[in-house]
Design goal:
Distance between the termini: 175 Å
CATH architecture of one domain: Sandwich
Helix content: 10-25%
Radius of gyration: 42 Å
CATH topology of one domain: Immunoglobulin-like
CATH superfamily of one domain: Immunoglobulins
Largest sheet: 6 strands, mixed
Number of helices: 4
């Protein structure tokens, strides 16, 4: 019995220690890409959840927003792919807490972790994407150009399959050996779209990073090209519905699932176009296109609309100038009114009612006093009699 009991106790102890070890190691870690203390309005963001341990168990991941138990509200810009959570065209409303909950049914383990997103409205240096679209056919060419900088940039890519940062190309360090001066150049990278081209792209330099954009390589028969970066109010925007092989002259467009019409404007590159003139906030949304018979359909693509920052800056500057010009006038008016209120009645000339009634000395009425009450002829006769008595 003793020989059987001791191994049993050791087995129970080992199981308990193993369970505690699993609980200590099974802590999810939530990472945010691109990295940094803040994310910027209009860019794309990936959140990844992984376990801190290297346990080989199969984990199931659930995502929550704001609280650790309320399901995430459906949103065209928010997408869930197991352990990843992506946001397209970030807005101020996307700021807040995000929770990842990891579950393992076999070991009955549950753990969760939180990350807080802070959204900045300041405009970061902007990369340039050619063509300006989030979706591209496999085999097509595209390029990413980093902003102009005297210190150079590195292009970073984050694959949605393997959440590890990859430096796309190592450039000559700046400043180069020998103390030479670095020229202000714009780094440009060209690609042929493959399965490895999908992911999040951004530029990094000594002073920080640019905005990020998510590029998806399409393997289907149709895609819709919408601007990868936010467009401004009042801009003219062209959406391109493109067939991979067929040259169709018509396509039906949808916004947020609603049919907005069939168009037959044929562009030079074989795409059916939808032109939106004078973009409004209500034009923002999720767009897709399909063939007229609905047998082919593109994935959805988000069109982001933001206020024109340049117009707001000009309005703010103009308002400040006008206000500075009005301040002296306002001060003068206030000063004048205060003087009127302080000044007593002695500051003003006396009126007729204020003069005391004093009787005037009686004098003999002179001719000149009477003359204003007489006609011209009567006045002349009176003067003659005084000057020449007896006439």
């Amino acid at each position: 019995m003793k020989t059987i009991l001791v191994p049993s106790l050791l087995g129970v102890a080992a199981f308990i220690l193993h369970a505690f070890a699993l609980e200590d190691l099974s802590v999810p870690i939530v990472s945010v890409w691109p990295p940094g203390p803040e994310i910027f309005v209009g860019e794309s963001v990936f959140l990844y959840c992984r376990m801190a341990s290297n346990l080989s168990f199969a984990w199931t991941y659930l995502w929550y927003r704001h609280t650790s138990h309320a399901a995430s509200t459906p949103n065209h810009r928010h997408s869930l792919y197991g352990d990843s959570y992506s946001i397209t065209a970030v807005t101020k409303e996307d700021a807040g807490s995000y929770w990842c909950k990891a579950e393992q049914q076999e070991s009955n383990l549950t753990s969760k972790a939180q990350v807080v997103l802070r959204v900045s409205e300041e405009a970061p240096p902007s990369l340039t994407l050619t063509p300006n679209t989030r979706q591209i056919f496999k085999g097509d060419n595209f390029s990413v150009q980093c902003p102009t900088s005297p210190k150079g940039w590195e292009l970073k890519q984050l694959s949605p399959v393997h959440p590890n940062i990859t430096t796309v190309d190592q450039r000559t360090p700046c400043p180069p050996p020998g103390g030479a001066v670095c020229p202000e150049t714009s780094s440009n990278w060209s690609f042929e779209a493959t399965s490895e081209s999908s992911g999040l792209f951004w530029c990094e330099g000594v002073g920080g990073r640019s905005n990020s954009v998510n590029i998806t390589v399409n393997y289907g028969n149709m895609l819709l090209r919408t601007p990868a970066l936010p467009v401004h109010l009042g801009d003219e925007v062209v959406l391109f519905c493109q067939y991979r092989t067929e040259r169709q002259k018509q396509a039906t467009f949808f916004r947020d699932g609603m049919d907005i019409g069939t168009f037959n404007f044929f562009s030079s590159d074989g795409a059916v176009t939808l032109t939106i003139g004078g973009v409004k906030i209500t034009d923002e949304g999720s767009y897709k296109c399909s063939s007229p018979d609905r047998k082919m359909e593109s994935p959805e693509s988000w069109l982001s609309v933001s206020p024109d920052r340049g117009s707001w800056k000009w309005f703010a500057v103009s308002s400040t100038i006008v206000l500075l010009c009005l301040i002296p006038l306002i001060v003068w008016i206030i000063h004048s009114r205060s003087q009127q209120m302080v000044c007593s009645r002695s500051c003003w000339p006396l009126t007729k009612g204020d003069v005391p009634s004093v009787p005037l000395p009686e004098t003999k009425q002179d001719v000149t006093e009477v003359q204003w009450d007489l006609s011209w002829m009567e006045m002349t006769s009176l003067m003659d009699k005084q000057m020449y008595p007896g006439t």
